[in-house]
Design goal:
- The protein has two domains: 144 residues, CheA-289, Domain 4 (OB fold (Dihydrolipoamide Acetyltransferase, E2P), Beta Barrel); 149 residues, Rossmann fold (3-Layer(aba) Sandwich).
- The protein is of the alpha/beta class.
- The strands form three sheets. Strands 8-1-2-10-9 form a five-stranded mixed β-sheet, with no helix packed on it. Strands 3-6-7-5-4 form a five-stranded mixed β-sheet. Strands 12-11-13-14-15 form a five-stranded parallel β-sheet, sandwiched between helices.
- Helix 7 runs parallel beside helix 8.
- The chain contains ten helices and 15 strands.
- The longest helix is centred in the last third of the chain and has 21 residues.
- InterPro entries: Chemotax_regulator_CheV (IPR024181), CheW-like_dom_sf (IPR036061), CheW-lke_dom (IPR002545), CheY-like_superfamily (IPR011006), Sig_transdc_resp-reg_receiver (IPR001789).
């Protein structure tokens, strides 16, 4: 399946070291600007170099190389660096990188899971090749979660006993390629004793949905990330909505992208809701709306 939603998603290639290429999806990128002098932020994380004022927005700027474990930028390098401004996890953040390579079209089906040889480099969610060179796709959510930890109350939903009992019988599938996002989702549902299943990519999720439906035990709620290698969240939602045995599921696309465009595209492919990560109460109440829809359909049936 190829549609307009994933045609617009390319990769921004950039340098953190002299030899290795890295990338993030272009949907996360708002702007790229040359280095500009920064204002110090007292008591900030050791990877935050300072704050930049760009077009009226004041945003923290992170040394991305240092954040993922590579040598930090030196003062002499700064003049040749670029700031990648991202709109992610409800905040504008700048990542300072050693160089910008290019924006390239990307077939996200060709992105593979990180090889075990990468070892402890947990910030990589996938690898691919561009012009015969290895490119590592970075987990921006994980980077930001370590620098700007979520407030505890954003991770633990509050609901009544009645609401909990409405959710408990539902079969829920959580899909995300980011380890930090899966941990957040798990913590949120574990804290209120709601059972669930987890998939780490869209392809596995689709197989789980099909097997459950064929066993006459279909999933009721599907919560999926949008940006995933292989089968992304848009494509997964499209496949589910266009299958007579799968479209029973209430689809919630749950993304670190803060753009209104991503919400509009989510609805175009058949998702019932699109939420920006991570606010547990918003997610749980979306699930409750899914439960209401399911219960209403059962009454009509």
């Amino acid at each position: 399946m190829k549609n307009a939603t994933n045609q617009s998603q390319g990769m921004l290639l950039f340098k953190l070291t002299a030899l290795q290429s890295f990338a993030i999806g272009t949907l996360k990128v708002k702007e790229i600007v040359p280095y500009t002098p920064l204002t110090a932020i007292p008591h900030s994380h050791h990877t935050v170099l300072g704050a930049a004022n760009l077009r009226g927005d004041t945003l923290p700027v992170i040394d991305m190389a240092k954040a993922v474990g590579y040598p930090p930028l030196t003062k002499d390098e700064l003049k040749d660096c670029y700031i990648i401004i991202t709109d992610c996890r409800r905040m504008l953040v700048g990542f300072l990188v050693r160089g910008i390579n290019k924006i390239t079209e990307c077939n996200w089906h060709n992105i593979d899971a990180p090889p075990s040889a990468l070892g402890s480099n947990v910030f990589v969610t996938g690898v691919t090749t561009v012009e015969d060179k290895l490119v590592q796709l970075l987990d921006v959510e994980l980077i930001l979660s370590k620098i700007f930890p979520d407030a505890p109350d954003s991770l633990h939903p509050v609901l009544t006993d009645v609401q909990r009992e409405i959710l408990r019988p539902l079969k829920i599938l959580l899909v995300d390629d980011s380890a930090v996002a899966r941990r957040q989702l798990s913590q949120a549902l574990d804290s209120i004793s709601i059972p669930y299943f987890i998939a780490t990519n869209g392809r596995d999720a689709l197989e789980m949905l099909k097997h459950a439906a064929e066993a006459n035990d279909p999933f009721d709620i599907l919560v999926s990330d949008i940006e995933m290698p292989g089968l992304d969240g848009y494509e997964l939602a499209f496949e589910v909505q266009n299958s007579s045995i799968l479209n029973h599921a209430y689809i919630i696309l749950h993304t670190s992208l803060s753009s209104e465009i991503s919400v509009s595209q989510a609805h175009q492919v058949g998702a019932h809701e699109a939420l920006t990560k991570f606010e547990a109460n918003e997610l749980i109440h979306a699930m409750l709306r899914g439960a209401e829809r399911k219960n209403g359909a059962e009454v009509v049936a």
